[in-house]
Protein: ABC transporter ATP-binding protein
Amino acid sequence: MRKKLLDSFKGWGISWRYISANRQAIVILTWLGLFSALANGSVPYVAGRFFDAIVKPSTVLVWNTNLPFWAVLLFAWGVLQLIALSVDWVWDIKNERFGIGILTDYKADSFSRLLFLSTEFHKGRKTGEVMESINRAGNGLYSIVSRVVVDLAPKFLSIVVGVGFTFYMNKSLAIVLLLGVVLYIFILIRTVPEAVPLQRKTNKSWQKAYGAVHEAVDNIAMVKQFAAEFFERAKARKKFEDAKSIGLTLERIWTNIKFSSRTIVFVVQLIIFILSVLFIQAGLMTIGELLAFNAYSAMVFGPFVILGQNWQTLQNGLVALETAEDVLSLPSEEYEPKGSVVPKVTHGAIEFKNVSFSYKKGNEVLSGVSFTAMPGQMVALVGESGAGKSTLIDLVSAYYFPTKGAVIVDGVRTDKWNLRALRGIIAIVPQEVSLFNDTLEKNLAYGVKKHTKAAIERAVREAHADTFIEKFPKKYAQVVGERGVKLSVGQKQRIAIARAILRNPKILILDEPTSALDSETEKFVTEALDRVMAGRTTFVIAHRLSTVRRADKILVLEGGKIIESGTHDELMSIEGGNYRRRYELHVGLV
Structure:
């Protein structure tokens, strides 16, 4: 029981981290809540005395004038109400700002932490599931802070005031009221933890459902190409129905909890009314005191009733925060590991020394790989899909580190490099180019801190991208759409080449950069690449073997091992060699 109760509140630590970071707002809200509690807490007592003053008229001397006591009490009641309304109005404004501020901080922090997680994490998780988890957590935190914690805080201060007045008015009824409150809290503590595991399961089901939807929308072109709309709709519907089924079970639990809580409130109020009648008949209580006590009963029970009604919201938020924290608490990528260095002079010399690599709980993807790549050299990687070409490139960029051996760049192991500095001397032209839904100019200059408009235009001309950019109505201010959807594949590749030229790297990585270009454009781009490759260490992942003929070194990979290495002519001279067989198949000699 104790463990279940503690598990249900794990999210409090996260909530408190953001609440405590806004101490000034908390102090202001606390003082406003205190004034509100005192003002609201005095109203029922004054109202009760007002009704008694009507039943038993009397006068009071105010500024040398005899006034009916009920009129004085009515004036006091009005003043207290105005004070309470004014304080509550200011409190509402401050509370809303506080809640929105915390929501903003949480989502900004979460996005920041996501960015700094490793490439391995991002490749292994569905974006939709992760974003849904964070959105749920952010909204949950907002609800916890603004609707439960801060909203209920002044009301619980009112409880103290209310209990004080009830004991002053009638100790017997006050004890009955307190016993009811204790029983109410006991039932919440006993029943709520049972719903927590189911809440976690519900959240995970919704994450999977939104993950499927995000994935389908993200790949909408493929969905359309295969006319798979009905298939994707059915798949998403199934996941939503699964989440709905678990959610309905959870709702039944919460409904039963609410019913039990309301029953307790009803029984306690009934007992108080019965006892009040007896006290009034015995002359121990007035009608005004009954009305006041009933108001204080509502004031004392009210926050607990609201808490019971919002307990589901509270628990949903806590579980959502806990679920998101499972991701956000993962260690960030170490950009500046202890003892990291930035070589004063970089040339782009690369050495693989007996490198082996395997992903977590997997077989070796690379095994005993050794080679060197010097500045000005073009190294081509050849092999079937899954041979280890992309993994080898990922090791150069230090997205991963070898499980055995070492990758050395300019005399420094990649795990000793300052990663920002290392990746700052590398430019990649991928086969599938990703662009932001922004202008061409901003996409071209992405990641390049110091650039000029002239430098961008020069890079664009060298990549032969000016021919289509100049045709756009807004030229460089043209927005390219999400992932560059408004550009053709060939246009996106030329943008990527221009971006690489602008970056002026020491190491250039080309993933078949001319594969989507027509023959005429390919000629211009190849000439541009020849210029940008001059003096730089260049890796080419080759799918078209005609691209690699000019490479200074060709590495043929199979099963994660280098089985052949040499120039085109050297490899073609190997009778029955892997590269020779591939090349002959490529040009149609066999």
